[in-house]
Backbone:
């Protein structure tokens, strides 16, 4: 991978983590995301 692609993936990962962490627990439950697994979901979403 290129440095640019790595950076883009990292930015997508960080954005996803931030957005999911900002959601209340009830919304996370509604979409099927456990708070303790946010990192894993974000890594998968960003191919990171």
Residues:
């Amino acid at each position: 991978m290129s440095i640019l692609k790595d950076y883009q993936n990292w930015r997508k990962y960080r954005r996803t983590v931030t957005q999911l962490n900002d959601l209340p627990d009830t919304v996370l439950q509604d979409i099927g995301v456990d708070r303790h697994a946010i990192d894993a979901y974000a890594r998968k979403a960003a191919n990171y």
Remarks:
- The longest helix spans residues 3-22.
- The chain is about 75% helix and 0% strand.
- The chain has a mean pLDDT of 96.
